[in-house]
Amino acid sequence: MxxxxxxxxxxxxxxxxxxxxxxxxxxxxxxxxxxxPRERQEQADSxxxxxxxxxxxxxxxxxxxxxxx
Length: 69
Ligand SMILES: [Zn+2]
Known about the structure:
Layout: E1 3-5, E2 12-14, E3 18-21, E4 24-29, H1 30-35, E5 48-52, E6 58-62, H2 63-68
Antiparallel strand pairs: 1-2, 3-4, 5-6
Bound molecules: zinc ion (ZN).
Zinc ion (ZN) binds next to strand 4 and helix 1.
């Protein structure tokens, strides 16, 4: 089983505790996603998801691509 470091709470958790994203897994575990809802996504165009890359760059990802990932 794969493990991943959560960028929010700092814990090492199984990959199953992370939601999938366009290119792998979200940087935050599911627990943190519940605690800290995505702040700006609601403002994004309805066809896009706003994501923040690990290097801090914000990017808009087509939801279609997001789902296929
Ligand atoms: Zn976490």
